[in-house]
From TrEMBL:
Name this protein carries in UniProt: Cytochrome P450
Top-level lineage group: Bacteria
Source organism: Streptomyces citrinus
C-alpha cells in the first residue's frame, strides 16, 4: 500500500461519512491522489519536523489541509494552537463524531478522557485527578527507580549475550520501563506487557489504515474489560482497585475500561518514544550525555534536560482531532461549524515566537511559555507528572550505569516510524560499554 493510500485514518474519516450521506461509493483510489501537504503534520526528518511545516507555520499558522471533499484546518502556530486546545466550548472531542466513519463502530469508542466532552469529561477527570497529584504519585518513586535498574540489567545482559555485543535499546529498556510502571499503576499483571505494547503501538500507526487502528482499539478494550471484571471481583491496590473501592457505584465498567485504556495509550508508547529518542539525542551529541553523567547532582540537571526534551521532541505530533461546534475565528481565519481542526503540537512547540533558535535542543534555555507536549486545556495529559518522573529517573540512571554507552549503528541507518501520530524509532542498537 502506498503512503498516500495509507492515510485512510483520522484525516479521511469524515470524508467517508460524507460520501455515504451523499449516496456516493467509497472510492479508496481518491486517497492515492492526496497531495503531500495532506501528510505534512506527520512527516519528520530524523527527530525534527520537516522544514516545510515550519515554513507554513511562520507564514500561515492556520491553513487549509488539501483533503478532497471536506474542510480540515491545520493549526501550527503556538498561540493559535492554545486558542483551539483551550476552547472546549467551541471545539468537541466526542468520539461519536467518528462512529460510522472510516470503519469505526460505537463499540470501538476507547472512552476515557481524550474522546469525551464535559460534563462526562469533568466527572471522570475529577475521579482520576487525586491519583495523579505529585503527593499520590510519590508512592511510585521507589518502584520506578527499581524498574529502571532492573531493565538496565536486562539491557546489559542482552548486550553481553549478543554475538556482536549490541542490544536493542527500545526492546530491552525504552519500552519495558513504562510498561512496567503502567502495570504497577493500574494494578494488572506484568505478564500482560506484550499485549500492552502491541495494542499501544498499532493504534497510532497511520500506515496500518483506519481498520487496523480501530481493530487494535477493539482488542485493547476487550482485554481491559477482563481486567476490569477481575478488579470488580477483587479490587487491588492499583488505580483500578482504588476506583472500584471508592467510586464503584458511580462509575460503569465501560468507563473504567476507557480510563484504563487512556492510561495505557497515553503513557506507554509516548514515554517509550521519549526515552528512546532522548537517548538518541544524547548519543549523537556527547556534550549532553556528559553533562548529565558528570553532574554533581544529576537530579538537578535532569529536570530542565527532560523539559527541553519534551518540547524539542513533542513525540505526540498532533492533538486528537477537534470538531468545531460553532462558527469561530482562529488567528484571523474563519472556521465553520462542522469543520475539523488538527493541531500540530510539534510545529507549535518550535514556534520562533517562543524564543530564539527553537529548532535547537538547548537544556540551558530559559523557561519560556509552557510547551504543548502534553497538550493544553482540559484535555492536557493527566499523567504528565508521572511521565516526567519516569524520564527523570531513566536518563540519570542510564548514564550512571553505562558511562560509555554508544550507538552501534550510524544515525542514518536508523528506521523511524513513518506517519505515526506518536513518533518514534523502531530500533536503537547500542553498545553498553
Amino acid at each position: 500500500m502506498s503512503v498516500r493510500s495509507a492515510i485512510a485514518t483520522w484525516l479521511t474519516r469524515l470524508y467517508f461519512s460524507r460520501l455515504r450521506k451523499k449516496g456516493g461509493s467509497l472510492d479508496l483510489s481518491v486517497l492515492s491522489k492526496l497531495p503531500d501537504g495532506a501528510l505534512l503534520p506527520l512527516r519528520r526528518e530524523g527527530v525534527d519536523p520537516v522544514p516545510e511545516i515550519g515554513a507554513l507555520r511562520d507564514s500561515e499558522p492556520v491553513s487549509r489541509l488539501p483533503i478532497p471533499g471536506m474542510t480540515v484546518w491545520l493549526v501550527s502556530g503556538y498561540d493559535q494552537a492554545k486558542d483551539v486546545l483551550g476552547n472546549a466550548k467551541a471545539f468537541s472531542n466526542d468520539f461519536r463524531h467518528l462512529v460510522g466513519v472510516g470503519g469505526a463502530g460505537a463499540d470501538q469508542n476507547p472512552g476515557g478522557l481524550g474522546f469525551c466532552d464535559p460534563p462526562d469529561h469533568t466527572r471522570l477527570r475529577r475521579l482520576l485527578t487525586p491519583e495523579f497529584t505529585m503527593r499520590r504519585l510519590s508512592r511510585l518513586t521507589p518502584r520506578i527507580h527499581a524498574i529502571v535498574e532492573e531493565q538496565l540489567a536486562h539491557l546489559e545482559k542482552a548486550a553481553h549475550e549478543s554475538p556482536d555485543g549490541t542490544a536493542d535499546f527500545v526492546e530491552h529498556f525504552a519500552m519495558p520501563v513504562p510498561a512496567l510502571v503502567i502495570c504497577e499503576l493500574l494494578g494488572v499483571p506484568y505478564e500482560e506487557r506484550d499485549a500492552f505494547q502491541r495494542f499501544s503501538v498499532a493504534r497510532f500507526d497511520v500506515l496500518g489504515g483506519a481498520g487496523a487502528s480501530f481493530g487494535a482499539v477493539s482488542q485493547s478494550l476487550d482485554y481491559l474489560r477482563g481486567v476490569v471484571a477481575e478488579q470488580r471481583r477483587n479490587p487491588g491496590e492499583g488505580l483500578l482497585g482504588m476506583l472500584v473501592r471508592e467510586h464503584g457505584d458511580n462509575i460503569t465498567d465501560e468507563e473504567l475500561t476507557g480510563l484504563a485504556d487512556g492510561v495505557l495509550t497515553g503513557g506507554l508508547e509516548t514515554t517509550a518514544s521519549m526515552i528512546a529518542l532522548g537517548t538518541l539525542i544524547m548519543l549523537k551529541d556527547r556534550e549532553h550525555f556528559e553533562a548529565l553523567r558528570d553532574a554533581e547532582d544529576p537530579a538537578t540537571v535532569a529536570a530542565p534536560f527532560v523539559d527541553e526534551l519534551l518540547r524539542h521532541l513533542t513525540v505526540v505530533q498532533t492533538a486528537f482531532p477537534r470538531f468545531a461546534r460553532e462558527d469561530i475565528e482562529i488567528g484571523g481565519v474563519p472556521i465553520a461549524a462542522g469543520d475539523i481542526v488538527i493541531v500540530s503540537l510539534s510545529a507549535a512547540d518550535r514556534d520562533p515566537r517562543l524564543g530564539p533558535d527553537m529548532d535547537a535542543f538547548d537544556p540551558s534555555r530559559p523557561p519560556a511559555a509552557s510547551h504543548l507536549a502534553f497538550g493544553y486545556g482540559i484535555h492536557r495529559c493527566i499523567g504528565a507528572e508521572l511521565g516526567k518522573m519516569e524520564l527523570r529517573a531513566a536518563f540519570p540512571q542510564l548514564v550512571g550505569r553505562f558511562p560509555e554507552l554508544s550507538l552501534a549503528v550510524e544515525p542514518a541507518e536508523l528506521e523511524f516510524r513513518k506517519l505515526s501520530i506518536v513518533y518514534g524509532v523502531e530500533r536503537l542498537p547500542v553498545r553498553v560499554g
